[in-house]
Amino acid sequence: xxxxxxxxxxxxxxxxxxxxxxxxxxxxxxxxxxxxxxxxxxxxxxxxxxxxxxxxxxxxxxxxxxxxxxxxxxxxxxxxxxxxxxxxxxxxxxxxxxxxxxxxxxxxxxxxxxxxxxxxxxxxxxxxxxxxxxxxxxxxxxxxxxxxxxxxxxxxxxxxxxxxxxxxxxxxxxxxxxxxxxxxxxxxxxxxxxxxxxxxxxxxxxxxxxxxxxxxxxxxxxxxxxxxxxxxxxxxxxxxxxxxxxxxxxxxxxxxxxxxxxxxxxxxxxxxxxxxxxxxxxxxxxxxxxxxxxxxxxxxxxxxxxxxxxxxxxxxxxxxxxxxxxxxxxxxxxxxxxxxxxxxxxxxxxxxxxxxxxxxxxxxxxxxxxxxxxxxxxxxxxxxxxxxxxxxxxxxxxxxxxxxxxxxxxxxxxxxxxxxxxxxxxxxxxxxxxxxxxxxxxxxxxxxxxxxxxxxxxxxxxxxxxxxxxxxxxxxxxxxxxxxxxxxxxxxx
Amino acid sequence: xxxxxxxxxxxxxxxxxxxxxxxxxxxxxxxxxxxxxxxxxxxxxxxxxxxxxxxxxxxxxxxxxxxxxxxxxxxxxxxxxxxxxxxxxxxxxxxxxxxxxxxxxxxxxxxxxxxxxxxxxxxxxxxxxxxxxxxxxxxxxxxxxxxxxxxxxxxxxxxxxxxxxxxxxxxxxxxxxxxxxxxxxxxxxxxxxxxxxxxxxxxxxxxxxxxxxxxxxxxxxxxxxxxxxxxxxxxxxxxxxxxxxxxxxxxxxxxxxxxxxxxxxxxxxxxxxxxxxxxxxxxxxxxxxxxxxxxxxxxxxxxxxxxxxxxxxxxxxxxxxxxxxxxxxxxxxxxxxxxxxxxxxxxxxxxxxxxxxxxxxxxxxxxxxxxxxxxxxxxxxxxxxxxxxxxxxxxxxxxxxxxxxxxxxxxxxxxxxxxxxxxxxxxxxxxxxxxxxxxxxxxxxxxxxxxxxxxxxxxxxxxxxxxxxxxxxxxxxxxxxxxxxxxxxxxxxxx
Lengths: 493, 495
Prior knowledge:
Number of strands of chain A: 18
Mean pLDDT of chain B: 95
Distance between the termini of chain A: 58 Å
Mean pLDDT of chain A: 89
Oligomer: heterodimer
Number of strands of chain B: 11
CATH superfamily of the largest domain in chain B: Amidase signature (AS) domain
Helix content of chain B: 25-40%
Largest sheet of chain A: 11 strands, mixed
Number of domains of chain B: 2
Number of domains of chain A: 3
Structural class of chain A: alpha+beta
CATH class of the largest domain in chain B: Alpha Beta
Shape of chain A: elongated
C-alpha cells in the first residue's frame, strides 16, 4: 500500500477531559463556555494558603477507562507537582502523576471496515490524571501585546493517554482516535467534544528510512494544535512529506537535531516550527505534599470491572451473532454510539425484524438525524414505533415505498400510531382480483410498452408502474410489474 | 485591673461572670499595644476599630444571654501574619504580599471568628516563616521584650513577643521546624505544635506543606488547651487533616497519669552545643517531673544528627514549589518593566525581576536550595535521600516511644541571641532548629514551656514531645509541670 520509501512512525498523546461536574481538586464547575473567570475559587486560582482536595469521581472515571483499555490499574498512585512558570498556571506547578500513573500499558484494537489498513493492536504506554491549565488569550494589536487569562478551565480533570509509536499511517491514526473516542463515549467518561477541547491530541512523528540495508530514523517532531480528526490526518500526511523532503536535503538523522515542536495550521495546511528543545525541560517533579496517595483495593477494581459496560468491539460481534447483521451494518450502528445500539435493540425487542430495523436505521433514521442535526431523542420517533412500522412492512400491510410515507406522517405527529398513519394515508391492502383488473387495464392502455417488452426490452414495463400508482396508490409496484410480466409471458394478453 | 499577664482562662472567667466586658479587655490591650508595640516591633497590623467592633458584638451577645458562647468568646488573639484573613492584610512579612488581602478566611481563622475571639492584629514574622529570628521580615526585626537587643526567635517571633510584652493574652503561630517552640522559649511563654494534621492548614500560606503546623501560643498550658479546643479538628478542606474526633483538651487537662515514663534524649542532653545554663534548667525540670510521678530514663535517637540536614533539604524543596505562585502574574507584587530595556521575553523578564525584587535574601536562598535539590541529576542524592532519612528519623522516635511516654529536653541549645548576630551566617541560624525539627519531620506533638532563666535573666524553654496523636497527653504533662512549679507568667522588663 505504502509506496513511499519510508515507514511513517506515529505515537499519540491524547488529553481527555473527564466529565466530572466539578474540578479535580476543588468544587468549581467544569461547565464549558461560561464568562471568563466565573468558575474559580481560591484553590484553582492558586491563592496563598489554598489546598487541593481530590474529586474521587475522576479516579472512578480513570479506572473505568483503564479497565476498558486493558491497562494495569495501579493500586497505589500518588500526585506529583510538575513545576514550571506560565501565566495560565496560577500555582506555578501542575498537579499531575509522574512515576506512578494510575494506568499502565494496555491496548486498543483497530480495523477498517473498508480494508484501508490491516487490523492492528495499538499499545498504550500509560494513562495518568492531571489538572488542566487555564486559557491564555493573546491579542497583539499594533505591536501592543495584551494577554488575558481565563482560569475557568484551570483544574479541570484530564486523563492523558500515551500510546506506543505503533501507528504507521495518517489513516491508522485517525481510525485509532475515532475508536478511542467511541470507547470513551461508551464508557461515558468524557463528552469528547473536540471543539470545546474535551479531546485534544498531540502526535509524535518521524520516518524510518532504509539506507544501505539499515534503518535510519529522522528527528522526531511533536505536532500540536490538532483540533479535529481531519486535522490529525492532514497534519500527519503533511509532516511525513515534509520530513522526507528535509531528509532528502540534509540527511540529518535523529539526534542530529533537537526535538522540534511544530504547530498545525489548519488554514494553510502546514506545520510550523514552534520551538526546539536542546534537552528535556527540568520540571522538578516531586510528590505533592498537600495530597494523600490514592489506594485502590482488589475489591474496588472488581467492583469497577463489574460495572463496566459492554465495549464497542464486543457490541459489534454481538450484533452480528445475536441478530445476524452483516459486519458492516453492525459496525455502522455501533460506531454511532451506544444510544443508537440501544435504540436498535429496543426496536427488535418490541418485535421489529432485526435486519429491516437495521436498514431503516441506517437509511432513514441516520439520514434524518444528519439532515436535521438532531439527536435521537429530539427526533421523537421511538424505537417502539419503528418496531411497529417495520412489523407492518414485514407483514405486507404496507409496502416499503408507502412505508416511507407512513414514516413521514408519524414523524410529523409523535402521537400517531402506525395503524392510524396507514388509515390517514388511505392505505389498504389490494386484493388479487383488484390487482388483476388493474394489470389488464394497464396492458390494454399501453400497447406500445407491451410490444417493446415482447421485443426483448425487459425494462419497458417500468413505465406502467407510475400509471399504476396513479390509478391505485396502494398497489404494490413490485407485484404490479410481476403480474404484468406473467400475463404477457403466459400469453394471456 | 491589670490584665497584661492574666491568662486567657482567667480573662474568660471574668468575662463570663461579667466582671469585665470584652470591650474593656480589648481597649486595655490596645492601649498596651500603643504604648509598647513600637519598641519591640511586634504587631505589623492593628485595626483598633475592628477589634472593638468584634468585642462589642460579643458583649452584645453576652448581654442577650446567649448560652452558646464559647470559653474564649471575647478573649483577644494575635495572629501570625501568615494566616489568611479577609479583614486584615496577610503580608507574610514579605514585600510580595505587602498589600495582599485574602478573599477568604482560613479554617483556623474561621473557627476563631465563630468562637468570638477578637483579633488584636497580625504579628511580625520571618518572611514567609523562613527564619529563626524574625529578622528577615520586611517590617524589620522583632525585638525580645526580655532584652530589646536580642531576637524574639522565629519565625513566630511576633506572636511570642506579644505575650511576653503583655500585648495579647493569646496568639497563633505556625511551626515548620520549631517556629512556635523556639520563639516561645526565647520569650518565656508556652507554645504548642500539635500532631501534623490536628489543625487545618487551609488558609495558612504554605512554607513546607509536609512540615507546617498551626498551633497556639499562650501564658499557660491551660490556655493552650483552651485554644486547641477551638482551632483543632478534622477539616475536609485539608487533605492532610487527620480524620479523628478531637479530644477535649481542656476537660482532660487535669487527667495526667499518676505515673509516666519520661525519656531524655542522650544525643541532646550530652551534646557539646548545649549551653550549660540551659542544661541545668532541664535537669531541674526533670527533678520536678520525678516528683510528679515521672520515671526518667535515657533514650537514644541515633539519627538525630541528620535532623537539620534532612530538614534543610525537604523544607526548601517544598518551599521552592509552594512559592512559585508568587510570580507577579495574578496577585501581589509585580516589578515595573525596566525603562528602555528591550527584553527577548517580557514574560521571563517580569517573572525574574518580580521575584528578584519581591523576595528577600533568605527566601531566595531557600528557593534556590530547593530548586537545586529537586533538579534532575540531584533529586536522588538530595531530596530522595532526605526522604529516606526522614523515615529513619521517624523509626527512631517510634522505637523510643516503645519505652517512654514522653520525651523531655531543651527546646533550644541557647537562650535568645543578639539581633544581627547570626543573620549573615545561615548555617549558625539553621542550627537553632537542632532540637525542634525532629518533631516536624516525624509529625509529633511538641510543647515548649518556660523552665527558668539564665543568669542574665533570659528565658529558657523545656520541650515535651509525645507520640503522634498524644497531643492531649503532652498538654496534660505540661500542665502538671506548670502546676508543680506554681507557674505564674512573669512580666518581661520591657527595656
